[in-house]
Amino acid sequence: MSRIWTCGFEMQSVVTEVEGVTAGSPAISTTTVRSGAAALQIASLVSATAKYVRFNYAAASSLVDYYGRTYLHIVTLPTAENRIIGWSSGATFLAWLTLDSGGLLRLYDEDGAIGSASAALSLNTWYRVEMQFNTAPAAGSMIIAARIDGTEFAGATNRSISVGGDGFRVGGNLNSEAQTTGEWYFDDCAVNNVSGTVQNTYPGAGSIVHMHPDAAGDTALWGRGGTDSGSDWGQVDEITPNDVTDYLIGDVAADIVDLNMEAASVRGIGASDTITLVEVVARVTGATATACSHAERIESQASGTVFAGTTTTLATTTWFTNDDVNPRRGQCVSYTDPQGGGAWTPALLDTAQVGINAVDANPDVWGSALMAIVEYVPAAALGDDILALVAAQRGNPPVQTGHAIVQY
Fold first, then answer.
1. Which helix (H) or strand (E) holds 49?
2. Which residues in 337-362 are b (16+ Cβ under 10 Å) and which e?
3. What is the pLDDT of residue 59?
4. In this model, does residue 91 exceed pLDDT 70?
């Protein structure tokens, strides 16, 4: 399993290519959120106009086993069936979920409906909604499935999808429905892939936050551009990236900047929480449109073993998150502590440093934001999941926890 997109909308921007490709003017909410400080709001729908964020996880449509996750919170239901989550190739939808006026989710692909509708979802409750989109098998054996809080409610293993996917999107009116009623929210989105295999590798439970630099680290070889904040970390610590306002400059090949980060507790991570992954993300551009390159990096302690991401080439003077061409996903995803090889822990995050290497600095590489995307599972949520599993094994119904209905 590998994580190819992680988004909790924590940069708090719906400008396209900050969190993903946006259309129809979705909004950011900082009041109705599942974890972290923000979520995506879909409201004020305009008839026949799609409103969404799209995660372009592949450079081109590919026949691979993909698994997507989002958390869904409904305040107001649509008055008719509305496409809200889906896999696509470019603008063409291949498999999707709809939400109707009764709070039911339904699964479809390009050949028609799959299985039965879900149970009715309650208002003002966060649900974990996941989809499998496996086009790796031969035609007639492809797999499309959907589940809520860990329980599959619809699926089929005999599908024939015409082309592989390259994007996963969340929103409303995704089929240009004539709908103006509805308000719902998305948070803690993720896409996994398992190339050429069939495995139960749904992302599962996860909360997403961003940790930001707050002090100097091991190496300080980049310069400062724009307004000088007085520190290297002050150039790249904004929650919503301010791009050309203030930034760091990598002007010598292989020069590095490393920065310490704020404590994990600042972002709500508890001492006993489980860390799923840490992904280093940068907001970058070039001084000119000639090709230059960069690579993000992370270490769990000062002067420690560095985990370096894949080098990314830029050829643009426009600011992008990670890359200027698809797929614009992060290239530095760490699942284990680079130093000891064990799991990441909140304590290790407290001493971690994130950085950028200006691999090719001709022209200069500019960085306006640098952060660690952290996915974690709260210890309390793990306890709820265990209780639910025990209840299910004893033949009891799913339990209502403080987090949502947990089902197995």
1. none
2. bbbeeeebbbebbbebbbbbbbbbbb
3. 87
4. yes
Among candidate residues 82, 110, 112, the one with its CA nearest the CA of residue 97: 82
Q: Which part of the chain has CATH 2.60.120.260?
A: 209-377
Percentage of the chain lying above the pLDDT 70 cut: 91
Contact 298, 213 (CB under 8 A): no
Angstrom distance (rounded) from CA 270 to CA 350: 11
Task: Write down the number of H helices and E strands in the chain.
Answer: 2, 30
Phi, psi at residue 189, to the nearest 5°?
-85, 150
Other C-beta atoms closer than 10 Å to the C-beta of 114 total 18
Q: Which residue spans of the chain are classified as CATH 2.60.120.200?
A: 2-205
Which 3 state secondary structure label does DSSP give 392? Answer: helix
Residue-wise pLDDT tens digits, 266-310: 999 999 999 999 999 999 999 999 999 999 999 999 999 999 999
Report d(CA 15, CA 13) in Å as an integer: 5
In CATH terms, the fold of domain 209-377 is Jelly Rolls (2.60.120)
Q: What is the CATH number of domain 2-205?
A: 2.60.120.200
The pair of three-digit structure tokens given for residue 275, joined into one six-digit string = 């860390």
